[in-house]
Amino acid sequence: MTQHQRLLIIDFGSQVTQLIARRLRELNVYCEIHPYQNVTDAFLADFAPQAIIFSGGPDSVTREGSPRPPQSAYTLGVPILGICYGQQVMMQDLGGRVEAGQSHTAEFGRAYVTPAGHLPLLEGWFDEGREQVWMSHGDHVSKIAPGFEVYGTSPGAPFAITADVSRNFYAVQFHPEVHHTPRGAKLYENFVRLAGFTGDWTMAGYRQQAIEQIRAQVGDAHVICGLSGGVDSSVTAILLHEAIGEQLTCVFVDHGLLRLGEAEQVVSMFRDNYNIKLIAADESDLFLGALEGVSDPEVKRKTIGKLFIDVFQKYANEIENAEFLAQGTLYPDVIESVSFSGGPSVTIKSHHNVGGLPEKMGLKLVEPLRELFKDEVRALGRELGLPQSFIGRHPFPGPGLAIRCPGEITREKLEILRKADTVYIDQIRKHGLYDDIWQAFVAILPVRTVGVMGDGRTYDYACALRAVTSVDGMTADYYPFSHDFLGETATRIINEVKGINRVTYDITSKPPGTIEWE
Ligand code: XMP
């Protein structure tokens, strides 16, 4: 089996740990983030990293019982890079001293580091005499550990960059992974080069390895895969098909809450281009029937989620020898579920997925994307030959139009919404804006307003246009359309869509809003 070189990031709870992983993946280095609690001596020996990074974190190493890596990390003989809290941990563990925050030594925000010696880690740095970095620390190192030397200083951090070259241990007080350390990526590049990484994490390699792993996991059993038409489930299905061919059956459930022509597009994309066994189930009457009279967002979500599982199970039961369920779980979902704080504490919305199904049906999970970020899934999709028009599609939520129709859902409203959404997306494409926007859609509002068209009075629905930019859907900002675009779009919707006589534009960011209306 192909095996890539692996780097381990031990997470001490920094908000930006994921960015370290991003920087490394951009260098074609494979890495995994694990919360410090999980990284035991045995874990470390088993993981066999070629290098380790200690992340930043909110705690103070001066506090008794504060997070630590296993001490065997220091004797594995592999390079270590400590960042912020990670630097302080390293200093403390190896015989230096850290002092708790005092206002004159704390540093938050932009700072400048100047060189204090030559270090291969810093190659390509300090060409202009100093480097801008992002600091965020209350505590500071007051004595460096034996064996370490200072290679960079800032006004608030005399030990901003230290290293023990003989052991390949590096420790920096600032955060090289963030945007505000403009040339921070160079430090990661130098670190992985010093650690002997060859950049073997490519999509072609990943595809091959994933296929081998799927085959080894599944054997000759059958796998079922729920298709939503989104990028993640499509890439999962195609990868599985490449790995196990006839042993895969996909199930596409049309819950009657899809956009105009969507079910046909998804089914024909799979039927015409791939020889994948596909069950396309029209269950719209069931879902819309159950949603009649329901206007509470959580009740809608739960109703849809439960029915989805029932329906999926009904079709899955017809598949002989089904032992596995494939899911397009991505890396951010995996991190969230084992996060430092123990996962999200507040349920804002009950997200729709096929969770609960594997236990209920006694199925085992196949999750071939669980090591990937969204843009890596898109790259894998390209590698697998999925058309760009499909790969670049905006995300679409599992509960579909139900959560874009606040209040009671009726077939009439869904019909109006589909038409308005089609015009809006057409406008966005015509103006060449589709790829600049993370997600755009129309929500039909539970309110009718008075208008005048021709010489007559109208009393029709109002709708809201939504368009946001985002990197991961966790935070978002509204898209700054020009007034000309908004005016033209509103006119088209009102003229072309019977049932809408007023158009508004939603300019709420997330937080405090969410992307969807429900
Ligand atoms: P919110 O509305 O929470 O949405 O800001 C963030 C992103 O998640 C999508 N979304 C969902 N996706 N099942 C999904 O598969 C869901 O239940 C769900 N709810 C929201 C939303 O479209 C946006 O991209």
UniProtKB/TrEMBL annotation:
<dbReference type="InterPro" id="IPR017926">
    <property type="entry name" value="GATASE"/>
</dbReference>
<feature type="domain" description="GMPS ATP-PPase">
    <location>
        <begin position="201"/>
        <end position="393"/>
    </location>
</feature>
<keyword id="KW-0436">Ligase</keyword>
<comment type="pathway">
    <text>Purine metabolism; GMP biosynthesis; GMP from XMP (L-Gln route): step 1/1.</text>
</comment>
<keyword id="KW-0067">ATP-binding</keyword>
<dbReference type="InterPro" id="IPR029062">
    <property type="entry name" value="Class_I_gatase-like"/>
</dbReference>
<keyword id="KW-0547">Nucleotide-binding</keyword>
<feature type="binding site">
    <location>
        <begin position="228"/>
        <end position="234"/>
    </location>
    <ligand>
        <name>ATP</name>
    </ligand>
</feature>
<dbReference type="InterPro" id="IPR004739">
    <property type="entry name" value="GMP_synth_GATase"/>
</dbReference>
<dbReference type="GO" id="GO:0005829">
    <property type="term" value="C:cytosol"/>
</dbReference>
<comment type="function">
    <text>Catalyzes the synthesis of GMP from XMP.</text>
</comment>
<feature type="active site">
    <location>
        <position position="177"/>
    </location>
</feature>
<dbReference type="GO" id="GO:0005524">
    <property type="term" value="F:ATP binding"/>
</dbReference>
<dbReference type="Pfam" id="PF00117">
    <property type="entry name" value="GATase"/>
</dbReference>
<dbReference type="Pfam" id="PF00958">
    <property type="entry name" value="GMP_synt_C"/>
</dbReference>
<dbReference type="InterPro" id="IPR014729">
    <property type="entry name" value="Rossmann-like_a/b/a_fold"/>
</dbReference>
<dbReference type="InterPro" id="IPR025777">
    <property type="entry name" value="GMPS_ATP_PPase_dom"/>
</dbReference>
<comment type="subunit">
    <text>Homodimer.</text>
</comment>
<dbReference type="InterPro" id="IPR001674">
    <property type="entry name" value="GMP_synth_C"/>
</dbReference>
<dbReference type="Pfam" id="PF02540">
    <property type="entry name" value="NAD_synthase"/>
</dbReference>
<keyword id="KW-0658">Purine biosynthesis</keyword>
<dbReference type="InterPro" id="IPR022310">
    <property type="entry name" value="NAD/GMP_synthase"/>
</dbReference>
<feature type="active site">
    <location>
        <position position="175"/>
    </location>
</feature>
<keyword id="KW-0332">GMP biosynthesis</keyword>
<dbReference type="GO" id="GO:0003921">
    <property type="term" value="F:GMP synthase activity"/>
</dbReference>
<protein>
    <recommendedName>
        <fullName>GMP synthase [glutamine-hydrolyzing]</fullName>
        <ecNumber>6.3.5.2</ecNumber>
    </recommendedName>
</protein>
<feature type="active site" description="Nucleophile">
    <location>
        <position position="84"/>
    </location>
</feature>
<dbReference type="InterPro" id="IPR022955">
    <property type="entry name" value="GMP_synthase"/>
</dbReference>
<keyword id="KW-0315">Glutamine amidotransferase</keyword>
